Amino acid sequence: MILATRLLTALTANTGELNLSNVNFASYLGDSGFGQIEIGNVIMIIMGIVMIYLAIKKDYEPLLLIPIGFGIIAGNMPYNPDLIPIGYLDVLGGQQSVFKMFYFGVSSGLFPPLIFLGIGAMTDFSALLSNPKLLLLGAAAQIGIFITLLGSLFLGFNIQEAAAIGIIGGADGPTAIFVASQMAPHLLGAIAIAAYSYMGLVPVIQPPIMRLLTTDEERRRKMKPTRHVSQTEKILFPIIAFFITAFIAPGAITLLGMLFFGNLLKESGVTRRLADSAQGSLNNIVVILLGFSVGTSTQARYFLTTDSIKIFVLGALSFAIATAGGVLFAKFMNLFLKGDNKLNPLVGAAGVSAVPDSARVVEVEGRKYDKSNHLLMHAMAPNVAGVIGSAIAAGVLLSMVPH
Amino acid sequence: MILATRLLTALTANTGELNLSNVNFASYLGDSGFGQIEIGNVIMIIMGIVMIYLAIKKDYEPLLLIPIGFGIIAGNMPYNPDLIPIGYLDVLGGQQSVFKMFYFGVSSGLFPPLIFLGIGAMTDFSALLSNPKLLLLGAAAQIGIFITLLGSLFLGFNIQEAAAIGIIGGADGPTAIFVASQMAPHLLGAIAIAAYSYMGLVPVIQPPIMRLLTTDEERRRKMKPTRHVSQTEKILFPIIAFFITAFIAPGAITLLGMLFFGNLLKESGVTRRLADSAQGSLNNIVVILLGFSVGTSTQARYFLTTDSIKIFVLGALSFAIATAGGVLFAKFMNLFLKGDNKLNPLVGAAGVSAVPDSARVVEVEGRKYDKSNHLLMHAMAPNVAGVIGSAIAAGVLLSMVPH
Amino acid sequence: MILATRLLTALTANTGELNLSNVNFASYLGDSGFGQIEIGNVIMIIMGIVMIYLAIKKDYEPLLLIPIGFGIIAGNMPYNPDLIPIGYLDVLGGQQSVFKMFYFGVSSGLFPPLIFLGIGAMTDFSALLSNPKLLLLGAAAQIGIFITLLGSLFLGFNIQEAAAIGIIGGADGPTAIFVASQMAPHLLGAIAIAAYSYMGLVPVIQPPIMRLLTTDEERRRKMKPTRHVSQTEKILFPIIAFFITAFIAPGAITLLGMLFFGNLLKESGVTRRLADSAQGSLNNIVVILLGFSVGTSTQARYFLTTDSIKIFVLGALSFAIATAGGVLFAKFMNLFLKGDNKLNPLVGAAGVSAVPDSARVVEVEGRKYDKSNHLLMHAMAPNVAGVIGSAIAAGVLLSMVPH
Amino acid sequence: MLAATLLQAVMSAPDQQLIDIGLRLALIGMGTVFIGLLILSVSLPLVKKIAEGKKARLVAAGSEVTPAELTKHEVAAITTAIHAHLLRINKLEDMKLTWEMYEKPYSPWRMAGRSKMLIDRTSFRQRSR
Amino acid sequence: MLAATLLQAVMSAPDQQLIDIGLRLALIGMGTVFIGLLILSVSLPLVKKIAEGKKARLVAAGSEVTPAELTKHEVAAITTAIHAHLLRINKLEDMKLTWEMYEKPYSPWRMAGRSKMLIDRTSFRQRSR
Amino acid sequence: MLAATLLQAVMSAPDQQLIDIGLRLALIGMGTVFIGLLILSVSLPLVKKIAEGKKARLVAAGSEVTPAELTKHEVAAITTAIHAHLLRINKLEDMKLTWEMYEKPYSPWRMAGRSKMLIDRTSFRQRSR
Ligand code: NA
Ligand code: NA
Ligand code: NA
């Protein structure tokens, strides 16, 4: 009798709602993929496969698109969320899902500054130091951010959402994620996927716009070779650049602080082992977790909305506008420059950032018209300036828009 | 007078219960190891030393046994938990102990998927792709899991505990920890120690069983050389294998998602730096913290129970049954195979996983009977299949058993 | 009408206090550095620049001073904390600042043991094993800790604060941070900065004291060459040393456990990849985040207090006393030693730890008086003993002083 | 004592329903593992087909040279040639690597190791394994 | 359908105040970006001056040999010489590195890779890129 | 002013009990540090004995060749021989390593560095230290 009572208690207390009638193969199949699959999942999984394909075959930003692509697949495999926490938002009986823990790095805004640390530790600002006026091209391309912001307001988003969507035009994944995590967390997945997708598609989006806005003669123009930059200049740069930019846009302190900190580690010459890890293992670990997390956050039930479609349309628009802004501003600057100081306007397209893909696009486009014309070094200047520019823009929006 | 009051306040408010009578050497000694040591600690510390000895002298899974062994020592050094938080469960005055923070990676289930990411990034699935039917040996060896589950029910564990104990038979440390952290956190320490100990002891446990169940002729049998596997196959494998396994066992999405994600990073050819860090520094860091944490969680006061003894007995049983399951199923398959397609049944023993130790045991056993018989490559196939198989089994239990 | 209501709701609900009158350039400038800068920030930023300068030009502990220096700059850039969370204490609308998340590793006491793991994995205890009596020099130098503790009580700090300040005299950054995080979190920034600054300034602080307390003849004394130490000794050392020290000072289990664990990973010979990551990427990542976090925690509004000034004065004192303690105890030991067993008292100065800078100072000083006198190997023994000694002292204080 | 403990535990066996649940779990679990790996094993030849389909186009014209035909010396020669070729491309970068590898021979954090080298200068580490 | 959605969205345009705020944000934001990068670009020549000021003292006496004048062979020779010089300094350490690199050829965690090498022994990986 | 602050602080000295506690803490603390390191220092010769006990069996028969007797050239020769021997074992693996080291010379993430190399092509970095 006592034994029976003990067992009864054990069964009810310990095994929860488990009883014999629930434990059968049909019930198990119903909770497996066979019973849980939805059309939305299939669409998203195909999208993930396409991303992986493009990354491997076309070499479009593989370090980002492969983690995101596989994350999309993992996040959209069907399961019953009442039985076990798997998805990026799942908490069950006090136990967070692992994907939710990974995603914390995204939702808290922790990962983007760490990525910036790594970017700083692997970026060489020589090109920019060599020709400072090219910085302005990186400023001009940020017009994409603000026009997209206005467009988002027109499409019915509120001001916080519009600000977060606008930053897609900065062509900087980490900046976009950082702003979205603070301003519009519910749109973070769509914004991140849009930003990274278009960064991957830079070689597809930019060339037609660049050709449309330039003449043959302009595209063939060669630029003065860059000068040699001393080590002392490179050491002073991150400190001085941080002062100026953080002073003007305090909202950018977190992102630019880490960027220039990483760069100082690289250039100081006495912290090699720290710079190596900042741009090496730490960066790789964060890239893996960030990409995968962003991917898992595209669970069809939350992701496939008209808002996501609008964001993708606005994102494409913003990349196009940013590219045009950079190219046209280069032509505008040429009005004031003389002789061999004149710029090849193609270089302006690199102002969108998307480091270093858009600089590579400039190089490739330039050589289409003159095999001997190497624009890569010149394009690197607006390219890294674009990173700084969009971080400043993000800082302004973070300061001005209450959130 | 005012000064006296100030000091009185300071003394009572700031120094807590500290007063002159408490501050003496005898009282200090009482709180040091001299006053706090217990016989249980001594037993556990000796166990830790034995593990370290086996790891260094016998090379039994040193990457796991050394962190665990030292963790056991560190977790069992005597101290007074009312004075300072040290142990893996200690929180004192709102301050968590560092060991508790480390242990969070274990108790939350965060570490195992990260380990699987690393295993994926260092595993070559060629052997399996070359001879797919060997996958079934990896399935057969999982019988150890379910017989142990039944045995645990007989020994009086409830259904959640039995499921967690059963997974020891999967011979996969991370899988066992993951399931235990969700199903039976109070048994996690014992389950983890049992799983890793027996994984280390695979060269001791398996050979007698292998010899018992095979004839001399069978042990000498050579197998057809494996075929070359193309890179495209290797890239497609992680994606397709993830679809199938996650669809059938959604509970395994977290573990297998990370395993195949890691493998895709390795095989894609465009994400080398991510794969390097996934299987390198990230894996090492997690292995260090996981092993050490599991070790510290064996504090004698919580660990030395009859439950732990039962778990160790059941664990040994489950490894033996799993080995027998693999070998016997290989013999069963031979009934349907002809000529040089017949399997050497020793290869079945590798189905328990314990990668790559059990494959190495198969190689060593095989060469005892024929110096020229290299079974390593063939054993790798059931070996990695065993990892997938036990993750599927874990997924089924996580889905079906409420927790 | 409905549209208007919707928009009104949207504006009030979504944009918070944002309204047209707030959005203008003057208001923006007021929230930028132009409106927020304070004299305290300027002072701290200059201090950060000086640290970076010393690190690069004079090579004073660059791996610590550069992250701290840049952290000071980043933590003191002016911003409006009501608009966006940036500082190391900021939480706004439930969103923690990124710097606060980084700082968690400091305030929770998580980073110091991880640093100790790395130090263990990169430290060779041969010198100490070769000449065990030099351990006592590492003990003698800890007198700095306790005299500073008494001095702090005199300057009006309470007992917890005094204990935390005293540990600066241990000349071990991580130990000081660990104790301060548990005992006196509000002084953590000042204590950490003091500890690391003086560790960097060891080549400036120690030599005059060393010369003051030694005769010319003593400084020229050569010591017996160290003996070769076998691998088995090196493997046994971390285990035995951990037993003894943890038994006597349980409060040091966390720090010394990680130190000796790291050393076992290094010496075992079978866990190379773990040791490499412990002293490589993991250590670098923690050093970056710890240094930067400590820097950001010097926000002028919290940091520039008379308490900070007192702590800096006490810190300088404690380094001087510790150095004197080591040198004088070496002379005291010489009273009992004969012939070529006599110590060169300069070696005592290395007992303060500050590994390996103070050992380097001993080498340099020794060679000033005899070019052929290499004291480096002998100085390494008290140097690493000093690390153990201050961890023991920390353990005693953590056990005895309620917190 | 251990035996007694186990015996006692087995004696107080759980009721039939719990065992039934356990048996069903075992059946469904083992079944799922087998079905999952069986489906995977039959789908792998498909993977091979897909991969070969792509490759077929590439090697359609000439017969692929099986690397097995290469001698050790040929392998060495080819490797060296490719190495040299790539080396030229990466020459400047490599130079930098070489250069920087020795950049800071007296870094503070390498002191511990260095002092050990001085001690062990003339001795080799004996390894038992 | 997409077009319809977008059209509908645009039709229900937000009120003028929200647009005004957006326009002001755009103006201030774009202005700040431009001013920030403009100040940075005009301050960079100053950085150069500071850096040159320091360097000037060093090269005051003789004219600096521009590395551009070195031929490929000279570069190789110098690099080798420096390498050899530093190599001597680091000889013992390097020896240790070389030694340990091959220390544990059968480490369990390298088995997977090793078994693959055995399989692929005679084949080279074909890379499409 | 600093002096005044300190003076004032010292003047308002804490009561005797707090100082007594501090003194006792100092005594116990310093005592424990000394006892701990003293026990450690007397136990280390034991460690040596244990280690030697194990080694003794190995070298009982012949006298161990002290590495100190090796000349630099012998060291070099032995190292090279061992290196070559192990190289043969690891040949395939090494080949793979060499191969892959140059696998993707135009990876996007290496572009920044590469563009710098192009700029600095003909110049060497001057290091002051
Ligand atoms: Na940008
Ligand atoms: Na398994
Ligand atoms: Na110390």
Quick structural summary:
The complex is a heterohexamer, with three copies of chain A (403 residues) and three copies of chain D (129 residues). Chain A is mainly α and 403 residues long. In chain A, 69% of the residues lie in helices and 1% in strands.
Question: How would you describe what is shown here?
Answer:
The complex is a heterohexamer, with three copies of chain A (403 residues) and three copies of chain D (129 residues). Chain A is an all-alpha fold and 403 residues long. Chain A has helices at residues 2-14, 25-31, 33-36, 39-58, 62-76, 98-107, 111-122, 126-130, 135-140, 143-154, 159-166, 173-183, 188-200, 202-212, 216-220, 231-248, 253-267, 272-279, 281-296, 300-303, 306-334, 357-369, 376-400; strands at 91-92, 95-96. In chain A, α7 (111-122) runs parallel beside α17 (253-267) and α10 runs antiparallel to α21. The longest helix of chain A is centred in the last third of the chain and has 29 residues, at 306-334. Mean pLDDT of chain A is 89; it is low at 1-16. Chain D is mainly alpha-helical and 129 residues long. Chain D is built from five helices and no strands. Residues 59-69 and 79-129 of chain D have low confidence and may be disordered. Chains in contact: A-B, A-C, A-D, A-E, A-F, B-C, B-D, B-E, B-F, C-D, C-E, C-F, D-E, D-F, E-F. Chains A and B meet through α3, α4, α5, β2 and α6 of A and α16, α17, α18 and α23 of B. The structure holds sodium ion (3 copies). One sodium ion (NA) binds next to α23 of chain C.
